[in-house]
Design goal:
With about 130 residues, this protein is α+β, with helices and mostly antiparallel strands. The chain contains three helices and five strands, in the order ααβαββββ.
Length: about 130
């Protein structure tokens, strides 16, 4: 796991959305972000994640919502690292993805490192090794 900052930032006025998901996947797979697809722009995020992660000997198993309190014990991700999503602390209607490790905030790909609004996770990306 090599932390990498996102390279595209949300600008709601221009309709540009950040590449935090790509940065999290790049970090998790130890691949430079310039070689990781811009997942946010894909019509089918699940398919795009699966196709890319397959090359890294990993798999995207879907999203998990309505998390139980002990979700980190149920789903350990890849070596304890899990990509989680929630509301962005910077944008009214925006979402953000960050990395947790063993249920605790570990890495935020945005340079301000504020993680998720109110610390609330609303989904996890179920990524596993094959």
């Amino acid at each position: 796991m090599t932390p990498q900052l996102q390279t595209i930032y949300t600008n709601e006025k221009l309709g540009v959305y950040g590449n935090c998901i790509s940065a999290c996947v790049a970090s998790l797979t130890d691949v430079p972000i310039k070689y990781v697809p811009y997942f946010r722009g894909m019509n089918n995020l699940a398919k795009g994640l699966n196709e890319y992660l397959d090359k890294c000997n990993m798999a995207f198993r879907g999203f998990k919502y309505n998390l139980p309190e002990n979700w980190e014990k149920i789903f350990e991700g890849v070596d304890g690292y899990v990509i989680v999503g929630g509301d962005s602390p910077r944008y009214v209607n925006g979402t953000h993805a960050v990395i947790y490790r063993y249920g605790k905030p570990f890495f935020d790909p945005h340079p301000d490192a504020t993680f998720l609004k109110n610390g609330k996770i609303n989904r996890i990306y179920l990524i596993t090794k094959k």
